[in-house]
Design goal:
Helix content is about 50%, strand content about 15%. The protein has a 7-stranded parallel sheet, sandwiched between helices. The structure holds nicotinamide-adenine-dinucleotide (NAD). Nicotinamide-adenine-dinucleotide binds next to α1 and α5.
Length: about 280
């Protein structure tokens, strides 16, 4: 059990990638606060507790953290996964929608980190994983608010990673490419066709981000070198490096990173990261 007795929060975990992470975490021994504004699509597992609410509402964070600290004394892992997508191009954006995207996709990430970091500082560390997107670094047409907020998540993650590095709080972002989830089903058909045409395998991926999230969350400080050496962000094969569809490419990527961070911890992390992607 890789996360035995680790107290975790996963937002947007009623479905999709968040649910995959929440389910994998309990299978590895963690207790998971599953948060979403919608009811979970499938029955919760033993070791999961549901907190219904809006991630952009500071009151939700007070409710979750105070309950977890009261009942478990500590929060070890936070996964900021909840997000919405809007497909409007810049000239079509409604201000109200834009502000909502900022609140749900970006402000919530700050609120979540703000809520757990004081406890992590007191307890000697923790792990925070923020879901960004390929569209936080590479542009596609349309979805202006999504691009802007996901780029914000990526850079806020780097800022927090650097700020708390000496406090043993590891802050990483995952940047998925096109993953088949309910969010993807909302995508206009022509946009989806374009996205798939840009993907070497010519298909969307399965929501199997969980091995990567697991790998990052369980890593000790020593073993987080790979994530740190790529600027505290980790990309999936279909995102930042979408032309890399083979394991050999990841090995090549890892060895490039390891030249920058040649310690033993870096080697271990690179290896587990590659296995995380391809198992
Ligand atoms: N699916 C993809 O192709 C893809 C690609 C890149 C990044 N991502 C990112 O991965 C994460 C998960 O995406 P997904 O595809 O599983 O999406 P999804 O729409 O299937 O799931 C998102 C979940 O977040 C919840 N949510 C939305 N707004 C909320 C709010 N205000 N408060 C609480 N919960 C809220 C939804 O109810 C839903 O359960 C998101 O951050 C998304 O941006 C997904």
């Amino acid at each position: 059990m890789k996360l035995k007795d680790k107290i975790s929060i996963v937002t947007g975990a009623a479905q999709g990638i968040g649910r995959g992470i929440a389910d994998r975490f309990v299978k590895e021994g963690a207790f998971v606060a599953v948060s979403d504004y919608k009811e979970p699509r499938t029955k919760l597992l033993s070791g999961q507790q549901f907190f219904q609410g809006d991630v952009s509402d500071p009151a939700l964070w007070i409710r979750i953290t105070s309950r977890l600290l009261e009942e478990h004394g500590q929060i070890h892992v936070l996964v900021n996964n909840a997000a919405i997508i809007q497909h409007a191009r810049v000239h079509e954006v409604q201000l109200e929608d834009w502000n909502r995207a900022l609140a749900v996709n970006l402000t919530s990430v700050m609120l979540g980190m703000r809520a757990v970091i004081p406890g992590m500082l007191t307890n000697g560390g923790g792990s925070i994983i923020n879901l960004s997107s390929i569209w936080g670094s590479v542009a596609a047409p349309g979805a202006a608010s999504y691009h802007a907020t996901k780029a914000g998540v990526a850079h806020l993650t780097k800022n927090a990673a650097v700020t708390y590095a000496k406090n043993n709080i590891r802050v990483n972002a995952i940047h998925p490419g096109a993953i088949h989830t309910p969010m993807m089903e909302e995508m206009p058909k022509d946009t989806l066709a374009w996205v798939i045409s840009q993907t070497p395998e010519g298909r969307t991926g399965n929501p199997r981000i969980s091995p990567l999230a697991l790998s990052i969350s369980q890593a000790t400080r020593q073993r987080s070198s790979l994530a740190r050496s790529c600027g505290s962000t980790v990309a999936t094969p279909r995102s930042e490096h979408q032309h890399w569809t083979k394991r050999e490419s990841w090995e090549c990527y890892a060895s490039r990173l390891l030249r920058r961070s040649p310690n033993k911890g870096g080697r271990l992390k690179a290896d587990s990261c590659i296995r995380g992607f391809w198992n």
